[in-house]
What we know:
It is built from four helices and no strands. By secondary structure, the protein is mostly helical. The chain has one domain (3-57, 67-79). The chain is extended and about 35 Å long. The mean pLDDT is 90.
Amino acid sequence: MSPNQIAAALAKALGREVEARTVPRERWETIFREQGMRHPEMRMRMLDGFNEGWIDFRDPDTLGRQGRIGIDEAIAKLVGPPDRI
């Protein structure tokens, strides 16, 4: 699943344009602090780990599971109005 595919699913669910963008690392701390995070260093280290390949969830000895719904339906459930009872 690519960032552009996720952005397209968000756009569909929200009914407006959504664009996936790369944010330069030197802006991360400022952005995270603007979003209310007081100590963004650990999040930044985690993202570095993904980007540098030392955090990886593709262990060949791990059993994978795949759901039955697509990204469009999953995102719609996350951002849509709550179901009424």
